[in-house]
Amino acid sequence: MKSVVKIWWWALAIKLVLAALIPLSEDEAYYWVWSKHLQWSYFDHPGMVAWLFWLGHFFEPLGQAVRWPSVIMGHLTLLIWIFILKKWLPGEDLQNKSRYWLWLALSSPMIGFGSLLATPDVPVIFFWSLATFFVGEILARQRPRDYLFLGVSLGLGFCSKYHIVLFILSLVLWLLLERRWKEISLRGLMLTVLAGAVCSFPVIWWNYKNGFQSFRYQLDHGFGDTHWEFFWTYSYLLGQVLLLGPITLWMAAKAKPGSGFRFLIYTAWCPLGFFVLSSFRGTAEVNWPIVAYPAVYALAVFASTQLKYLWWTILPWAALAIAVLAQTFFPYTNQFPDRISETHHFDQILPLVKTYSPIYYGNYQMASRVWYEYKTPTKKLYQINRHDLFDEMQQGPAEESHFYVAKESWVSWPAWMTEEKYQISKVLEIPPKFTFYEVTKK
Fold this sequence. Notes:
Helix 2 packs across helix 3, helix 4 runs antiparallel to helix 5 and helix 12 packs antiparallel against helix 14. This protein has 2 domains: about 1-325, no CATH class; about 345-440, no CATH class. It has helices spanning about 1-20, 25-35, 50-55, 70-90, 95-105, 120-140, 145-160, 165-175, 185-200, 200-210, 215-225, 230-245, 245-255, 265-280, 295-305, 310-330, 340, 365-375, 390-395, 415-420; strands spanning about 360, 380, 400-410, 420-430, 435-440. The longest helix has 21 residues, at about 70-90. Strand 4 and strand 5 form a beta hairpin. A 5-stranded mixed β-sheet has the order 2-1-3-5-4. It starts with a helix and ends with a strand. It has about 450 residues and is α/β, with parallel strands linked by helices.
């Protein structure tokens, strides 16, 4: 295992350097704003990502190292899986298969390169992985502390992203379909439930105090449509095949692990299958089943006797990661999707704050990026685009009778501006998609 651990350490060092150099993404800047207004939870997501950014404030003088706590947590996830593999893989195959699993994980655009970005996905995968480890410990030893730590992992996972509930669904399906419930101690299970309830209390309490608005928003986001579009399901399935790799998926599907390892079948396929079903009620984003990826990789290396074929998954994603890094530091093409080039979206908007005041912005990403770059509080135009933290902080329309607005050209003005009398004048066109306005209340 020495070579595997060595790869892990080298990868951590590279990640920390890159994380300090890569500009914050739009969503990361928004989560950083959260960390300036710490709460138990938020309308969009639970609070763990904001708490990690808060820990990173100490590192802000070092470029973008504010995301280091998240990057370290994401990399520790890989170490947890090394221990999981060490427990379940045959001894003679451990070194080689663990190495392939690590290369799959490091090259993955989701749990490898993607973990350089501080998002809610990072902590939820970490706590999902911890929960997987403690399920294995419970089966092996039946110690009360493992039941306790399982509950802590699930509770803190709930404070990271609501998708952790799919771990519980996977666990229940495994217990029922594999008939393993007799191996679970009732007292231990009660300890898990108690620890989970205590550790998830911040999110539950915040939602109780705020009319369960976060729960309702996420349910509506995933299941809110009353019709079905073929593209939702097609794009989700195609995205998973491309991200995981056809060969990796085929190897994982063929895996026939022993009874002790079969739990991973459920944690791998349950999240992937759940969002297939949800795609019939709304758009299923490709990152939603990300918690399943480590287990899919584990099943692939467990089943395969021809591990060399996994390079057909590893090398293309590694090459793309290098291309994305080059685009991030030295933009050379407009052919990448907007999501990849987003760190430069607002470069032309940023200098406006030095000339015009006050400025309101047309979405939370824009306002957050300006706030982060200049370390000066900014405002989003109230009720423009969807509801977010800026609406809660401002709690009303602009108080000034004269102000400026930067927004995407196609975004509609909020209702309160059309109901009252405002004179709106175009000041600047900022290609390719922004317009800067002067607004005066009559």
